[in-house]
């Protein structure tokens, strides 16, 4: 499997884009502003979109993507999310008021989009690639994802807070190679991190003590105005793991 980072920032500005990862050429993990990095033909090649949760920075380009490629495909794009997240998308986005419901719009014999509910712990297998929903702790129902090529695995935490269940799942992955984990705020905003159910460096350091496997660790979802401070604080508090900052257009092959 090959994962390309289209966006990994906690905000926008300059060349910063919000969360979206392209897996091979046909799978998206989240659909933030990073989706705009793709050309029209690349967008039309996407068959599967896995959403971690309903917050705008993770879904904002989903409606525009579907609108852009609806007439270019002969089969639906499948959108995977938990039942709670799908209900939010239906009620607040694809409701004919904010945006058309592409699960009701036909191009030939098929709709442009179809929904597929996925539960925590459930695995979707796509041509030998396995994608499993992992538990996340956030202000809305949320998941992370475990991507397994058969040779190695990558875990994306999604937006999460202190989360014992995540580490229990991660520690069970024998072929773990990469871990992408969020840290949105600096330590001076620890109270805001707790309120919004995100990590800060001191909380991340405590969480990484629960990791029992070796992995290359990358930090995502940093607030743009605090990115340098956050990474400096992580460097001070999580030295045994040596986490790196995730950057746009970074590629992981596993």
Key words describing this protein structure:
254 residues, alpha/beta, Metallo-beta-lactamase, Chain A, 2 domains, seven-stranded mixed β-sheet, 16 strands
Give the SSE map:
Elements (H helix, E strand, L loop, with lengths): L1 E6 L12 E4 L3 E3 L10 H5 L3 E3 L5 H4 L2 H8 L7 E5 L1 H10 L13 E2 L2 E2 L1 E5 L5 E4 L2 E7 L7 E6 L4 E4 L7 H7 L5 E7 L7 H7 L4 H8 L7 E5 L6 H11 L6 E2 L5 E3 L1
Parallel strand pairs: 3-4, 4-5, 5-8, 12-13, 13-14, 14-15
Antiparallel strand pairs: 1-2, 1-16, 2-3, 6-7, 9-10, 10-11, 11-12
Helix pairs in contact: 7-8
Under the CATH scheme, the architecture of the largest domain is 4-Layer Sandwich
Rg calculated over all Cα atoms: 18 Å
CATH topology of the largest domain: Metallo-beta-lactamase, Chain A
CATH superfamily of the largest domain, please? Ribonuclease Z/Hydroxyacylglutathione hydrolase-like
Assembly state: single chain
Overall pLDDT metric: 97
Low-confidence stretches: none
End-to-end gap:
5 Å
Helical/strand content category: alpha/beta
H/E topology pattern: EEEHEHHEHEEEEEEEHEHHEHEE
**How much helical structure, as a percent, in the residues?**
10-25%
Total domain count:
2
CATH class of the largest domain: Alpha Beta
